[in-house]
Specification:
- By secondary structure, this protein is an all-alpha fold.
- It folds into 2 domains: 174 residues, Citrate Synthase, domain 1; 100 residues, Cytochrome P450-Terp, domain 2 (Cytochrome p450-Terp, domain 2, Orthogonal Bundle), CATH 1.10.230.
- It contains 17 helices and 3 strands.
- It binds coenzyme A.
- The site of coenzyme A has 17 residues, from helix 16.
């Protein structure tokens, strides 16, 4: 097979087809390795913060103390959203999904900050700061409106993660809760060219504004095959209910070829390294806040699935323990996917910036399977 025919070979879902060159993150799914800019994610989870990691992803290197301080201060300063955006959100139906609200609000930022100066580093920086700063505020604001309340304003004395938790409850979170939530954001910040990132890159390649890029990625993340599996993990654990039901549940799923939520991954054929870290976080929260029967169920489920499906490379993925952690943090289930977006905006923006540096518009080809030269049938004869 020549190189030319190989390139033209159709692969459903573009599986295995490189769509870009990138130095942002690296995953080895057989060894269970994930690195951001070459740094193992385990190191970042232990030693970094979400904002420092976002800086690393977007600008390619760890910030020094001044750079981090400046970035964190700018983000803090830009957390508030314009009252006109808040008023627009008030017109959304409270029954709407928060991801739809987020996609609309992210796109609306483009109406207010519309200068499309993609070759101006200052414009790029401001757009990065605004999106990282305002997305959590928009998620929390819509959540409050959905409950029939007024949005809770960002609290200037709280850092990024603590402030988001505060905007959900108007209570200052415990330091451990804020720290754990910050680590969760770091773990979800980037994951090579996943579907929403690809969507961001395709949109970026048209040289549209970064708010449209992020809105497009949010819309892609909203689908149940991408974000959202952690919500389903909790529903599944509720359905299983008792430890004794775990084995029959798994056997039933296998017999009926039903997917067990939170297991399996296109890339990882071992336990997802992020799942390992999230499991440790869940354990820390349980030590602090008391046991949780769903955690015990999850441990049993992991054991049984490993026993039955480990040979196929089916192990817990990132979503298996994240829902349990969020539940213990008191975060409502409907916000799990928007939280994924709060974190992943760092990765989307890193890929946006990388795409701009070497841009060529994405315009793949297709394999046409329709007719040729078909007759136009007059209305009366159809
Ligand atoms: C993530 C996922 C979409 C990856 O899909 P994929 O790479 O296309 O893998 P496939 O769906 O082709 O599965 C390959 C095989 O493993 C099995 N498998 C994959 N995930 C499974 C799961 N969660 N439970 C049971 N079996 C599973 C499939 O039935 C299939 O078996 P077969 O070869 O005997 O038919 C898939 O594992 C899944 O749907 N998982 C559950 C949802 C989830 O947790 N999503 C979050 C991902 S981070």
């Amino acid at each position: 097979m020549t190189a030319a025919t190989k390139i033209c070979e159709y692969q459903p879902g573009l599986e295995g087809i490189p769509a870009t060159k990138s130095s942002i993150s690296y995953v080895d799914g057989t060894k269970g390795i994930i690195e951001y800019r070459g740094i193992p994610l385990e190191q970042l989870a232990k030693k970094s913060s979400f904002l420092e990691t976002a800086y690393l992803l977007i600008w390619g290197q760890l910030p020094n103390e001044t750079q981090l301080e400046e970035f964190a201060t700018e983000v803090r300063f830009h957390r508030r959203i314009k009252y006109r955006i808040r008023d627009m959100m008030k017109c959304f139906p409270e029954t709407g999904h928060p991801m739809d609200a987020l996609q609309t609000s992210a796109a609306a930022l483009g109406l207010f900050y519309s200068r499309r100066a993609l070759d101006d580093p200052e414009y790029i920086r401001k757009a990065v700061v605004r999106l990282i700063a305002k997305i959590p505020t928009m998620v929390a604001a819509f959540h409050q409106m959905h409950l029939g309340h007024d949005p809770i304003q960002p609290h200037d004395s709280l850092d990024y993660a603590a402030n988001f938790l505060y905007m959900l409850t108007e209570k200052r979170p415990h330091a451990l809760e804020a720290k754990i939530f910050d680590v969760c954001l770091t773990l979800h910040a980037e994951h090579t060219i996943n579907t929403s990132t690809f969507s961001a890159m395709v949109t970026a390649s048209t040289l549209t504004d970064p708010y449209a890029v992020v809105a497009s990625a949010v819309g892609t993340l909203a689908g149940p095959l991408h974000g959202g599996a952690n919500e389903e993990v909790l529903s599944m654990l509720e359905e299983i209910g008792l430890i004794d039901n775990v084995l029959p549940y798994v056997e039933e799923c296998i017999a009926h070829k039903k997917k067990i939520m939170g297991f399996g991954h296109r890339v990882y054929k071992v336990k997802d390294p992020r799942a390992k870290i999230l499991q440790e976080l869940a354990q820390q929260l349980l030590n602090e806040k008391g046991c949780d029967k769903y955690y015990d169920l999850a441990l049993e489920l992991e054991k049984v699935v490993e026993d039955k499906l480990g040979v196929k490379g089916i192990y817990p993925n990132v979503d298996f323990y994240s829902g349990l952690v969020y539940r213990k943090l008191g975060i409502p289930r409907k916000l799990f996917t928007p939280i994924f977006a709060i974190a992943r905006v760092a990765g989307w923006l890193a890929h946006w910036k990388e795409q701009l540096a070497v841009n060529r518009i994405f315009r793949p080809t297709q394999v046409y399977t329709g007719e040729h030269n078909a007759p136009y049938i007059p209305m009366a004869e159809r």
